[in-house]
Fold this sequence. Notes:
By secondary structure, the protein is an alpha/beta fold. The strands form 3 sheets. The chain has an 11-stranded mixed β-sheet, with helices on both faces. It has a two-stranded antiparallel ribbon with strand order 7-8. It has a two-stranded antiparallel ribbon with strand order 9-10. The longest helix has 36 residues, at 527-562. The N and C termini lie far apart (87 Å). The model is unreliable at 724-735 (pLDDT under 50).
Amino acid sequence: MTPSAPWWPLVDPTGLGREWCDYWRDTAERQWLYLDVMRRRGNQYLEHIAKTRPHVLGFETELIMDGRDLPHPVNYELMRVIPPDGVDVQPGKRPFVVVDPRAGHGPGIGGFKPDSEIGVALKAGHPCYFVGFLPHPVRGQQVEDVVEAEIEFLKAVIERHPDISEKPMVVGNCQAGWQIMMAAALEPDCFGPILIAGAPLSYWAGERGKAPMRYTGGMVGGSWSTAFASDLGDGLFDGAWLVQNFENMNPANTLWSKQYRLFSQIDTEAKRYLDFERWWGGHVVLAADEIQYIVDQLFIGNRLSSAQLITRDGRRIDLRNVRSPIVVFCSKGDDITPPPQALGWVRDLYANEDDLVANDQTIVYCIHDTTGHLGIFVSSSVSRKEHTEFTDNMDYIDVLPPGLYRTDVNDIESLDQAGPSDDNYLLTFTRQDIESLDEVVNPIEADDRRFAAVEHLSRVNLGIYRTWLQPLIRAVVTPETARLSRRFHPLRLRYRLFSDDNPVMSGVAEMAAAVTAERHPVNDHNRWRQLEKMGSEMIENTLDKVRDLRDEWVEQTFMTVYGREGLQLLAGLGAQDRQVRFRPGVEPEHRRFVAQRQKQLRERVDQGGVKAAVMRAIIHILGGGTSTDERNFERLEMVHTELEPGLSLSEYKAHVREQFLILRTDHESAMAALPQLLKGANTKSRQQWLARIEHVVEASSTLDSAREERLIEVRQAFLPKGQQTRETPSGDQQA
Length: 735
């Protein structure tokens, strides 16, 4: 504080002048400390990019497989995560594989800190693996090569755990999400449950007034600009351009908020800021063929969600081939992958619930209310809550019957009956109709026509560029000019300029050390500090308004230009009754497949004997409502222990899932078939099975009235009145 003097109250009765002196000194000190953090950030950047395998993982790893050794080499690697001290991995638990996104940044964000996807899985006792990548691609590598490499990585993980019958759980963040979905569609037997976090799969989808990034392809005239950027890089696309696109989405945060947060909290914020910047500034590059495929086939073409992608050997990439449960985690606060883009593919591929059942597909989605794109897989609070619950309940998700479910993570204290769960949250699953996704996806046929027009224009412009301009660009670009263009990219330059390589920064470290030794911070009650915060809020609000005006202009321009009838006529979209978005789910061949699948399920209604009857009865009692939660899986685990100890866990799950499916397909016939399934079992045997059923369903909590009624129904099926007094021979008889 400013030294007191007896005359201060006379000349400064309000104390405003003294607060100004304190504030001025604090601000000057913060400026030096802020500049020193910028210097440390620059040095950190140079050290990071100098590494052969730069990543930001917070765990030690062991290289298991190098993608450069595969028949189609890629710059991806499979690594085993070494558990830290004090963390015990249980050999019998299914392995977890986390695949990091390659969207301009380096690898490691999925295991950035202890409260992360990898950290949560390790704490739960799962062996963990990480799929990362090197900064530079192998020349000529394709997206398909990367997908095949990830399949080989999963096969290697499975081989390392021969005693585990369950397939690995795979987590894909952002770009890695659609990549592992492609892999799972090609090799479904390699995958256990799949969690895709913040992953776009339906690229035309979006709500008007939001998600302005989906208009980018149309605003630049298609993918010719991608080819141009790759040619300037001599066949390499600089990922810094992708990062710059992300930053442009929120100019207030990029230009002001992030830096002011550091400046205003310089005494406590530096470490968190530097840790994040180590990942954010670790830009990587992509092969030209990779990024062109991504833009043409996915972002502009939207061919993944419509099963129109074909591999070089003629295989169709159809997401309906995925046999593993899929958990889609997205957020309303994510403007890079909003919920419509994360979930629209479900509506594109499946016409109704019968389609999901016929394809034996379980899809669970969770929509966070507020967190941003990075928060979905970086936020500690999200990891401790949502990711922990997903990890702990993946076995339950693995046995959910085919269908669409919305999942919610509830505070355990808010529930009337907590049941057997001993953690702070309870995961609940509520059945949803496919049509209910329309409230999330907001499909608009007129917008689909606009994006279809963009796709056509993109092909035309790309052809013109490749014919007339590309030969000229490639003739003048050399490897050295490409390297210099990446080196002097504005995003990279802002790190280098503040490093110790710049002579202007000499003396900053010494000055910052002196300031730290004699620091004089002011508290939040200082009125000048409060005025500073008010000014910061005004700047942030102004930049937000500018962003909103920009986004509104972009959307209106896109809608006007690509909504013109003349342009759509030139794009071959003149017929108003023509369907511009291909929906494979309504093809006649698929309809026949659905009908055949339903017929097969109905034929199995009276097959399976006593074991099928017991499992069907338990599922009927516990799952008769429209929603379920993790407590029911704890009951099903008890069934495995008490009734089916001879089955492996994977066999038991298949048995449970089949009975779920039969009940879901024709519930009335499935329950009516119980007497037929019990045929041959004597009264004593039925009484014993019924006693076990009652023990399982009543063990964890008191049954509500609806489940009590279903239990009475099961009792009547197991012990009809005519058998309750009949003499029975000793011993159990099973069908």
